[in-house]
């Protein structure tokens, strides 16, 4: 539970998030004028119909030969500054749009106290996914409760007091845009409008019910409750967005919004709330982490400011809370039926959020989903898959128009309107490896869950088409005859070159996984042959340089004093699987990572937790977690880049899981990177690749008991200090449960 002794003083640092995937609200808990910042995830400006025009980021007027010209110059000159390349290949972006705040729900409470006293408490309960505000006023204990229900498709809230007739408020909708009408009738408030930029239609309906008292509709589009014992509201919202190329428009939201709000308002408040909590807990309760924490009864902002990164139980309580908060946020911002979690999940208070609160794909969108499989929330990847699938068609067009080849491609910045091309910001515009990287999560979904139906229908077609792109776009490097990505750009860093480490590692990962999948599914030998031939000649993207570092580029250009936030050349260590701990490559990765230091943006620190965990250095992984909590975490425990950016929350949750369990190359590693500050503990319900659910208990820094439950018949090596020689072969049967205790 997160809790505070005062209302939120600002949205970014202090509001508390609830979400149903499609809908989100940030709770302020203000006393006299309660505020809920509202979100509906598809409310985006830009795209088709945008006043600025829109072309998906494709080349509107392709300059013939520009791409080959850059490739030739890179062959001749070795490197080109980003501005020089952007001048050739960049294109001004039009109609990209931005994620829009939906508006705000205001509840003005006449006679409510102006300032909180000692009785005030504002909380977010992670297990029940309820936000509450409690306070005592004029002898009555007041309770407000809010939730966002995925099964109900509504945001609900209830205000009550332990004395009759005390509940009175006026509820209204406000927005920073003036593109809507709000009309109240009976117990219903209806908001309708269309975004000025692109005509996207939106609607929200709010119904207010009471026990005792009355509801009055006001001519100004507000609803007033007086003299009630309890009052509750239900809110549904939607837009006519659809993830369908090229128009991105679907049904008017009116019918669905009406159905959702009327269904929810027809029954009791408790029925809707309890269905929500059941739905949430079915996901959330799967993983329980105990690192010896004892959550003291101090507000979360104080817990955070007192955090030292030491081994005290309050510090561990914050760490365990942060782990579970990442899972909470993923459930709240990524459920089937809407878009995936964006740079801010689903929460946004602005019409011009940072980076449009979009879907960056040179680390950010991928990082959002790192915790999904291992922390047993595989269902949350459904909207991610949809999003990736929806980009294939426009991405195919970009591949054809920009590169003249088959396959599909996207670059670093993507939006829900199929923006798959480039823009002209020189250090961020070029990243055709993104499509390949985006398919990695889909293959992971298969590796964890094991459904060949999923592999055949969903993951493999996207992977294969991304592989087709690279089979057609790799070039022979005149320096050594190996196949390289050119132009290649290590995200947001340095010069353009041919064969940058990350480019090569991503393509290697894609082609390897695609080949594995092709073998699993029995795809045509000719295609497999092409993959094998390319892999034989592919530059590996793994080189050690003059100071023992893993090179970020094909030539030794790394500066040991460079602390850039992206550590792209370690992709093969994480999220890739090619660099295994204990190898010379891992040593080189460690040299690079050590030089990069422990600083960086929130997400950069989160990535470093994962890296150090993969290097089996639990103490350094823990130090990165501590750095993130001390310097990149806001009082509401949102990660801050700065500004607020949710990828760091998800990356940290993934990193903590990686400290406790890893599973690559048919080996399941129990407690691979346990830090000294977590000597006792247990974790239940993590997932390992190959279809295992894993529970581990440890004491004195060593495993005491592990239970692996197999969902498939499968042989795996289990690595643990439980075993006399450090490992054991497990021949698991589907449904089998295998318990291990120390072999003396
Ligand atoms: C990437 C990062 C930035 C930021 C942006 C949203 O481009 O390099 O730091 O996180 O995404």
Summed up, what is this model?
By secondary structure, the protein is of the alpha+beta class. It has a 9-stranded antiparallel sheet with strand order 1-6-7-8-9-16-13-12-11. A 7-stranded antiparallel sheet has the order 2-3-4-5-10-15-14. It has a 5-stranded antiparallel sheet with strand order 17-24-25-26-29, with helices on one face.
Top keywords for this entry?
nine-stranded antiparallel β-sheet, about 750 residues, single chain, binds alpha-L-fucopyranose
Helix-strand blueprint:
Elements: E1 2-4, H1 11-14, E2 16-19, E3 23-27, E4 33-40, H2 66-77, H3 82-89, E5 103-108, E6 121-125, E7 130-137, E8 140-149, E9 154-161, E10 167-174, E11 180-185, E12 188-194, E13 201-211, E14 214-217, E15 223-228, E16 230-239, H4 254-266, H5 269-284, E17 288-290, H6 300-305, H7 313-333, E18 359-360, H8 364-368, H9 370-374, H10 382-403, E19 413-414, H11 434-449, H12 452-473, E20 475-476, E21 483-484, H13 501-521, H14 525-537, H15 584-596, H16 602-614, H17 618-631, H18 647-660, E22 661-664, E23 667-670, E24 681-688, E25 692-699, E26 702-710, E27 714-719, E28 727-732, E29 737-740
Parallel strand pairs: 23-27
Antiparallel strand pairs: 1-6, 2-3, 3-4, 4-5, 5-10, 6-7, 7-8, 8-9, 9-16, 10-15, 11-12, 12-13, 13-16, 14-15, 17-24, 18-19, 20-21, 22-23, 24-25, 25-26, 26-29, 27-28
Helix pairs in contact: 7-18, 10-12, 11-12, 11-13, 12-13, 13-14, 16-17, 16-18, 17-18
The chain binds alpha-L-fucopyranose.
């Amino acid at each position: 539970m997160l809790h505070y002794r005062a209302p939120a003083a600002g949205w970014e640092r202090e509001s508390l998030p609830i979400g149903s995937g499609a809908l989100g609200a940030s709770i302020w808990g203000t006393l006299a004028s309660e505020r809920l910042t509202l979100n509906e995830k598809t409310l985006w400006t830009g795209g088709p119909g945008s006043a600025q025009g829109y072309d998906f980021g494709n080349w509107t007027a392709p300059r013939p030969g520009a791409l080959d010209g850059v490739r030739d110059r890179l062959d001749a000159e070795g490197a080109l500054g980003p501005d020089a390349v952007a001048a050739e290949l960049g294109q001004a972006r039009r109609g990209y749009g931005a994620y829009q705040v939906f508006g705000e729900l205001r509840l003005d409470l006449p006679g409510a106290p102006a300032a909180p006293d000692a009785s005030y408490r504002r909380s977010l309960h992670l297990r029940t996914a309820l936000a509450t505000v409690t306070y005592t006023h004029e002898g009555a204990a007041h309770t407000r409760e809010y939730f966002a229900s995925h099964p109900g498709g509504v945001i609900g809230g209830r205000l009550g007091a332990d004395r009759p007739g005390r509940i009175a408020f006026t509820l209204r909708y406000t927005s920073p845009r003036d593109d809507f009408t709000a009309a109240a009738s009976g117990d219903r408030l209806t908001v309708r409008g269309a975004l000025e930029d692109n005509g996207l239609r939106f609607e929200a309906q709010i119904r207010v019910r009471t026990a005792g008292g009355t509801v009055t509709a006001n001519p100004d589009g507000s609803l007033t409750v007086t003299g009630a014992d309890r009052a509750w509201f239900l809110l549904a919202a939607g837009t006519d967005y659809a993830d369908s190329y090229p128009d991105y428009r679907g049904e008017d939201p009116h019918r669905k919004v009406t159905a959702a709000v009327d269904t929810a308002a027809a029954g009791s408040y408790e029925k809707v709330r309890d269905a929500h909590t059941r739905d949430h807990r079915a996901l959330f309760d799967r993983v329980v982490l105990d690192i010896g924490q004892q959550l003291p009864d101090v507000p979360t902002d104080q817990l955070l400011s007192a955090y030292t990164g030491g081994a005290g139980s309050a510090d561990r309580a914050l760490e365990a809370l942060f782990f579970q908060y990442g899972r909470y946020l993923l459930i709240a911002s990524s459920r089937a039926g809407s878009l995936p979690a964006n740079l801010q999940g689903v929460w946004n208070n602005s019409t011009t959020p940072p980076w449009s609160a979009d879907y960056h794909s040179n680390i950010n969108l991928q990082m959002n989903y790192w915790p999904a499989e291992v922390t047993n929330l595989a269902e949350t990847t459904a909207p991610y898959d949809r999003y990736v699938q929806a980009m294939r068609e426009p991405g195919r067009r970009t591949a054809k128009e920009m590169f003249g080849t088959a396959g599909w491609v996207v670059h670093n910045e993507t939006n829900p309107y199929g923006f798959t091309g480039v823009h002209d910001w020189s250090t961020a515009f070029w990243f055709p490896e993104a499509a390949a990287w985006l398919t990695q999560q889909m293959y992971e979904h298969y590796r964890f869950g094991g459904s060949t139906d999923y592999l055949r229908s969903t993951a493999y077609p996207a992977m294969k088409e991304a592989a087709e792109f690279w089979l057609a776009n790799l070039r022979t490097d005149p320096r050594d005859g190996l196949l390289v990505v050119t132009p290649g750009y290590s995200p947001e860093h340095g010069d353009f070159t041919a064969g940058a480490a990350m480019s090569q590692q991503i393509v290697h990962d894609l082609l390897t996984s695609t080949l594995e999948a092709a073998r699993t599914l029995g795809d045509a030998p000719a295609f497999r042959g092409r993959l094998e031939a390319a892999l034989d000649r592919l530059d590996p993207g793994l080189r050690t340089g003059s100071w023992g570092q893993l090179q970020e580029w094909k030539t030794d250009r790394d500066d040991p004093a460079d602390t850039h936030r992206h550590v792209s050349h370690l992709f093969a260590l994480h999220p890739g699987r090619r660099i295994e701990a204990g190898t010379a490559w891992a040593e080189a990765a460690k040299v690079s990572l050590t030089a990069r230091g422990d600083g960086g943006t929130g997400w950069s620190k989160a990535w470093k937790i994962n890296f150090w965990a993969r290097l089996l250095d639990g103490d350094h992984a823990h130090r990165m977690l501590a750095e993130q909590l001390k310097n990149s975490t806001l009082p509401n425990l949102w990660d801050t880049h700065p500004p607020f950016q949710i990828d760091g929350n998800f990356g940290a949750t993934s990193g903590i899981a990686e400290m406790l369990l890893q599973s690559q190359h048919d080996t399941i590693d129990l407690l691979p990177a346990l830090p000294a500050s977590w000597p006792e503990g247990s974790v239940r319900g993590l997932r390992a690749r190959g279809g295992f659910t894993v529970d581990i208990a440890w004491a004195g820094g060593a495993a005491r008991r592990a239970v692996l439950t197999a969902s498939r018949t499968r042989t795996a090596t289990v690595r643990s200090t439980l075993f006399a020689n450090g490992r054991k072969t497990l021949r698991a049967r589907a449904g089998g449960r295998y318990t291990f205790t120390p072999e003396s």
